[in-house]
Design a protein that fits this description.
This protein is 27% helix and 23% strand. With 396 residues, it is α/β, with parallel strands linked by helices. The chain folds into 2 domains: 186 residues, FAD/NAD(P)-binding domain, CATH 3.50.50; 142 residues, 3-Layer(bba) Sandwich (FAD/NAD(P)-binding domain). The strands form 7 sheets. It has a 5-stranded parallel sheet with strand order 5-2-1-9-19, with helices on one face. Helix 1 packs parallel to helix 8. Bound molecules: flavin-adenine dinucleotide. The site of flavin-adenine dinucleotide has 35 residues, from helix 1, strand 2, helix 8 and strand 20.
Length: 396
Amino acid sequence: MQVHMDTIAVLGAGSGGAMTANLLRRKLDTDEADIVVVDRSTEHFYQPSFYLIPFGYLEPDQSRHVDDLLKPGVEFVHDAVTGVDPGEKVVSLEDSADLEYDYLVVATGHRLDPTATPGLLEAWQETDEVYPFYHYEAALEMGEALRDFEEGTFLVTQPDTPIKCPGAPLKMAMLAEDYFRRQGVREDVEVIMTRNAEHHFGVQPYRDKLYEIWNARDIEFRENFSVEEVDPDAGVVRSADGEEISYDLYAPVTPQFGQEPITENSPLTTGDDEHGGEYVTIDKHTCQHTEYDDVFALGDCENAPHSKTAAAARKQSHTVSENLLAEMDGRPLPKEYDGYAACPLLTEKGKAIVAEFDYEDAISAPVESKMNWIMDVNVLPSVYWDAWMKGYDPLP
Ligand SMILES: Cc1cc2nc3c(=O)[nH]c(=O)nc-3n(C[C@H](O)[C@H](O)[C@H](O)COP(=O)(O)OP(=O)(O)OC[C@H]3O[C@@H](n4cnc5c(N)ncnc54)[C@H](O)[C@@H]3O)c2cc1C
């Protein structure tokens, strides 16, 4: 007699998906469940490197093949998800047959859409001044432009959509200001960053510490600036209020959304009114879907109000794996995610503040130190690849 073995499908082999699949494989023997990971890409990038590569602070080679990341016993399907029917428990794929599942983990991240800001894509493709560094290719290309930059305005903007790593544009502004100083051109350069909000960083006490640093180093913050369009011919960014900022070198953060196969072709996001249906609706503590008990989600694709970081996905992967096992056994869900996120704020070459916070409070002190830089730039990449992504975590 054939015994039914459960299939756990994990959508996405990025930070959240790879960690969760490997954690589950460590907890479940191969005769207890099949674990199938689907990703349309075979490359997994260490995205926190994207603001370090342009300055030469990390080598450009920052990706691993998904096959090398997933543990033996985890099946990888290289294909694009085109939709999910949680009623029938089926994932539809672009090239392969439908994937039937018993349990589903959604970790499809953010979709970057440079076309959502008129003029942005043209400015990136057709000029040498614009580098949307959230894209790996732009981060690679930006190094030469930074080295050649001698005078004018260096501009960083943020879109109105939620973004992953809300600290990344601030790091880009601070590292660039420091870089221009080291290059001996700082006096001829203006550094400006915009955001469509009152403040440049949401969480205290890090915000006040950052204002202190920005004031001392003359980095300008323009608040309540909603980017309306980029005009590559004029070298200008215009806001919804008609304000204009001219740039000579420009690092925009690309507008970000949910993945269309999930937002348009599944009912998994429909309960998310606050975000216009862009995000998979989960309980912010258990990471279980609000409607479908056999569906969990983590990372950038869901609506829990945490900062969208790999640090958050790392913590959530433990919650998802333990709660999914409990769901399989019919037990109450044992683990609650507390909203933990961490953001190493690199303030200059050799110095950083590590902002750590959860749903309730700040956790770490707003202290700038060399040790924080060493931890983030020299230690964390190996921990990311060789421990967290493999499902080993000394501090789960
Ligand atoms: C410039 C930058 C700097 C950052 N800095 C930091 C930092 O310092 N610290 C930090 O903790 N985090 C940082 N982050 C954020 C961090 O990288 C993300 O929060 C994290 O990767 C989220 O993990 P995820 O699994 O949700 O999404 P991702 O890691 O983006 O993975 C999503 C995966 O889903 C796949 N996918 C999407 N749609 C489909 C589909 N239809 N079919 C098949 N596969 C699909 C994608 O190919 C991808 O592999 C940074 C990000 C950027 C861009």
